[in-house]
Amino acid sequence: MLEYREDSEAISLNPMTRKKKQGYGDAAYWEHRYQHDVVPFEWYQKYDGLRDLLKKYIHATADILMLGCGNSALSEDMAKDGYYDITNVDISPTVIKAMKMKHLDLPQLKWVCADARSMTIFKSGSLDAVIDKGTLDALMCGDEATENVNSMVSEVFRLLRPGGVYLMVSYGEPTTRMPYLGPSRRAWSTSLHLLPRPTAAQEKYSWVRTLEPVPVGEDGILPPHLHGKDADFHYVYACVKEKLNVLLDGQ
Ligand SMILES: C[S@@+](CC[C@H](N)C(=O)[O-])C[C@H]1O[C@@H](n2cnc3c(N)ncnc32)[C@H](O)[C@@H]1O
């Protein structure tokens, strides 16, 4: 049974505390963590919270990459809900080995140890969807944050087929993420969805329609009624790779 420790630790990934949390950007931090803590940890949201958005953007027959899978139950839950083909990538050999052993009964799931910043083992344009829950956020920590995130997003873009989607689940507000994900950076269109955190007072957010994207510009500034210090959201960025420009680029 998965232990669900709601995102108290994820909240501490806040850039304000970045200095203390630089380890999140380091492969050695994650390898050490997975060697010494075998209790599964689900970041931000469980499958239940993401299911409708995943269904909106990703067909069950899609070729999917789960980027920085950790020991999350998301891929397992998706496979049990009809998704056929999910390749799970993580930089930690320990977590990949453990997850592979744990899920021998689910042939829909493949497990690969790789660095999200350089996934040369995968062919360009070979994927319909890349899902990232907390991995870009992790790379946002550390001294080389900008280079690391740019390398990872470039790789995601390269791997997607025209029309494919990068679904990025984050605690990060759009002003901090749109500079990496905005349409001026790549030939894709970016939509933003708001998802109240599981710990949020749900009645306070009954007006949120998660499936309907909220307007957000390249600068990431939200309309006044949607931002504020007490906004208790996770943000889901859906970047859909364009078809025309991509063909012109020859990718
Ligand atoms: C915040 S955790 C999220 C884990 C999982 N996606 C979840 O939602 O529970 C970030 C994950 O990214 C992995 N990671 C960090 N840097 C990576 C990199 N350069 N390439 C691939 N995976 C990486 C870590 O090992 C860790 O499992």
From TrEMBL:
Keywords, in A-Z order: Methyltransferase, Transferase
The keyword Repressor is annotated on this UniProt entry: no
Domain of life according to the entry: Eukaryota
GO molecular function: S-adenosylmethionine-dependent methyltransferase activity
GO biological process terms held by the UniProt record: methylation
InterPro entries the UniProt entry points to: Lys/N-term_MeTrsfase_sf, Methyltransf_11, SAM-dependent_MTases_sf
Domain Methyltransferase type, first and last residues per copy: 65-167
Family: Belongs to the methyltransferase superfamily.
Name of this chain's protein: S-adenosyl-L-methionine dependent methyltransferases
Organism: Klebsormidium nitens (Green alga)
High-level lineage: Eukaryota, Viridiplantae, Streptophyta, Klebsormidiophyceae, Klebsormidiales
